[in-house]
UniProtKB/TrEMBL annotation:
It comes from the Bacteria. Residues 7-227 form the HipA-like kinase domain. This is HipA-like kinase domain-containing protein.
Amino acid sequence: MRYVTPLREGGSLPAIVEADDDFLYVLKFRGAGQGVKALIAELIGGEIARLLGLRVPEIVFSQVDPAFGRSEPDEEIQDLLKASAGLNLGLHYLSGAITFDPLVTTVDARLASQIVWLDSLLMNVDRTPRNTNMLMWHKQLWLIDHGASLYFHHTWDNWEKQSRRPFRQIKDHVLLPQATELNAIDAEARRILSPERFQAVVSLLPDSWLLDFESAHEQRQIYQQFLINRMATSDVFVQEAQYAREALV
């Protein structure tokens, strides 16, 4: 209903908006940078994190009217809003939250291991000291911005082979030094993340975002199988994270 302010620290120009339920959301636009692929990764990553018991702001679908940006004076933002007409993705705005700073806040080994494990599963390249994509809100750690996850879907090349690869970029993870309980977390995650739960998450993806294959069903099946494969070979990415951590400490 109302464009409040852009969040210019985000490369894709997300914005705080007011919706028709009178709540504020951080809106991720389909017309930005990586398009709907970033929204897909955001939705899948956020909901898997929630299944694992991690804190993620409520994720909602948000319909943007084609006329929404007409009164916006900034031409760049106006173009973004026009290109984003249709179904977009929003995260509940955590008013008063501050960016997580590893020099200020110490994360315990269990939570650090959970987040490192999650980002290894999702191949999330964007949780580094330079850009932690975590917030402190009411003294608790919240995860945001999983849009850089699942990067295989930008080309679809050898997606089955990629699904079983170690995640080399985990060496840059901001919480890796504290992640000493990866084996225990891996065992827990194996009990939680069944193929049926992956299917439930992937089923949330709107058909209008799934345009890379002959049918939306086919694309959903690939996302689901990718996650099932990652889960079945989680020892590969857990071992990679452990090697990377040993090199650090």
